[in-house]
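Thread: "does anyone have the structure for this chain?"

Original post by V.I.:
We have the sequence but no experimental structure in hand. Need at least a predicted one for the grant figures.
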Amino acid sequence: MSAPRGNQEATAYDVIVLGAGPVGQNVADRARAAGLSVAVVERELVGGECSYWACVPSKALLRPVIAVADARRVDGARQAVTGRLDTDGVFARRNRYVTDWDDSGQALFLKSIGADLFRGHGRLDGPRQVTVTRDDGTRHTLTARHAVAIATGSRPNLPGIPGIEEARPWTNRHGTDSSTVPARLVVVGGGGVGVEMATLWQGLGSQVTLLARRRLIPRLEPFAGELVAQGLSESGADVRIGAQVTALRRPDPEGPVTLTLDDSSELEADEVLFATGRTPATSDIGLDTIGLTPGSWLDVDTTCLVNGVEGDWLYALGDVNHRALLTHQGKYQARTAGDAIATRAAGQPVDDAPWGDHATTADQHAVPQVFFTDPEAAAVGLTAEQAEQAGHRIKTVDLDFNAAQGANLYADGYRGHARLVVDLDREILLGVTFVGPGVSELLHSATIAVAGEVPLKRLRHAIACFPTVSEIWLFLLTAYQRDQKTPETAPA
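Reply from O.Q.:
Generated one for you, tokens below.
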């Protein structure tokens, strides 16, 4: 361990956490609950990307858009929707949920659990040591008796397209903190961020063009992207699949941006938003001082302990380990890692036998995700293609949601689709996908079924209330039963 340099202060803690987003806060809370002293280092806002530029503001902005769309699907309510969204009201709602980008409330939470907050840029400086550089240039050295947990998240990945710097593109941050509606917006990227941003800004009044190299939300079942693309097109967006940007121009910083596409055509917009993936925020946190590659994703075990680092002291949680770039998954990992840190700090061996398989399932094979588009797309577990590639013998069960009367009552002419991916050898669910209005609220039941490996013969006796959208479960399981021609001793 290197010694503090110059007149730096030096303070020892049991645990040091780099990053005060939801993931960092959760591991800090878990460690404090175990009686360990904790320092949390944050260079931006306490609460992180999720609280101020991602999950929270995007959903605060999207909800009014979806609420109006839902109202227009119900006769009687449709006639009451007589105007456009009040964008000032929508932005004010967003501002309330991000507390006007004031992080004092979240900083107070850290204080309430007994963690010490250090504001500044934290960098590893050898094993178990972190140097924090404040905005005024002063430095503070922290040493960790037991663990350093990296929870620094990820950043937008901008492609190296000629003219991209001149174009000054939006990223997810501009897409969620802007209070000006561009007349014409091009969204580049058909993943989760791309489709949500396209839904949002089209709903707020932009003329949106969405460019995607392949189908939308490609990690979900193909029908999910097809239905989301249909919904965007019906809302007025121009969805172009198979399009690629090859160059950008914006000679006037206040003027429009011109995009050149791979078919040599050009497209002009007032703003362009790139949603082309994420890169780990690990390039400037001192990984080189412990033999790791700056800017890399960090490989971890089931307790989120970083592989290849001696001494069992370095953990990587959330986006930086690249398992699932989702807040809820990072928080799950933080709880797991916090328990492991406490166990190792007490000098006890970590025996993950009772929960290791479950953790692997929850963190890799039963990851739930929702895209708040119109219609919503929600999925957990494996797609049919992924299951087959993994060597499972499967059957898919597909139904349109109008099979359930609850869906028809939810919205006149309800359009949506559901799929089960069934492991035929064990008769459990490997994956579930729902697409349709309001399906995000169905996802937790699917997650329980997949993560818990609930046998279908038992799942059939989990009765769905009539008349709710969740009745789709009854029809999916009945369709599977009939197709398998399995005799039952009792009605489903």
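V.I.: this helps a lot. The first helix runs from residue 22 to 33.
O.Q.: and Residues 164-276 form a domain with the FAD/NAD(P)-binding domain fold (CATH 3.50.50.60).
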